[in-house]
Amino acid sequence: MADTDLLRLPDMPLHDPFVVADTGTRTYHLYTSNDPTVSGVSGTGTMVYRSHDLREWTRPDVVFRTADQEGLWASDGGWAPEVHAWNGRYYLFTTLHNEDRPLAVPPAGPWGTPFQIRNHMRGTVTAVSDSLLGPFTVVDPTRPTPPENLMTLDGTLHVDPAGQPWMVYAHEWLQTIDGTMEAVRLTPDLSGTVGDPVHLFKASDAPWLGEQIPGGLPHQLPPYITDGPQLHRTSDGHLLMLWSTYEKNVPGADGTLGGGYVQTYAVSDSGDLTGPWRQRRPLVRDDSGHGMLFDAFDGRLMMILHRPFDNARGKLYEMRLDGDELRVLRQCTDLDGGG
């Protein structure tokens, strides 16, 4: 491919980025929602950029389209695509929604009544392929993988020490006011679920979220949002979860109060998915989030996220782990163009 056909991160529309570092081909695969302006392919779906050095990327290939799935329950969304290797195949998780399929509004909880107008089917679907480049085919086109009566998003794969696969997802603040992280066991072929969901934590468990809020009560300034979970097991057995939320009432340089998208993380004190989860301070602010960790081919631990939330671009950070403490060493402005 000619150099003129290659892209740099500042040129690449990129929301909810997810990287697969394929050691066999020494190629980074960067998945995001399909953007027809760069892929040239219309419709809701997933596209992938590829690179050997994290600096120059191919133009994207579309690996999944809702229009190609027979009998699919939803055709909108295509958010937060992730691809995971499992039992010799590749599994795509991506969030879809259908506003024409309303959900029953749950009863009022401790923080008030859920948002009735916007309760509709939303959840992560599972699709499978024999290749990182697809095409991916939805395993069950009739429903999302988490319970369909729940309004959920951003499902990710976690495999526990016993080899049990789980889908971890965010339960929408639109139903709960105080958004939660939950998990549900998956069948061995990832085609379905086993048992009821397990509550992991709620957004307001992050103590720093309430530091600027008078009284610190979620019902005073709703909502509290959970977004973008991604699990990471350290070499010494600690279990971390990256996740994102919206900070509230943070004083800006001009003295006014505002907020923004935030990349943070939590640590499981037991080392197990079920926790208890201890919330840590944010890693990156500045309207940044939905990050994930991956190992670069040169051995560095890297985090990719998007910034800003609207018209997002990918930002890369070199990271360091000290026990269960995750630290940002530097933003790789030589790769992502800064900003």
TrEMBL record:
One MF annotation (Gene Ontology) recorded for this entry: hydrolase activity, hydrolyzing O-glycosyl compounds
Pathway this chain belongs to: Glycan metabolism; L-arabinan degradation
Protein family membership: Belongs to the glycosyl hydrolase 43 family.
Regions annotated as coiled coil: none
Keywords: Glycosidase, Hydrolase
Transmembrane regions: none
GO BP annotations listed: carbohydrate metabolic process
Entry superkingdom: Bacteria
Signal sequence residues: none
Protein name, entry field: Glycoside hydrolase family 43
Species the sequence originates in: Streptomyces lincolnensis
Pfam family, one: Glyco_hydro_43
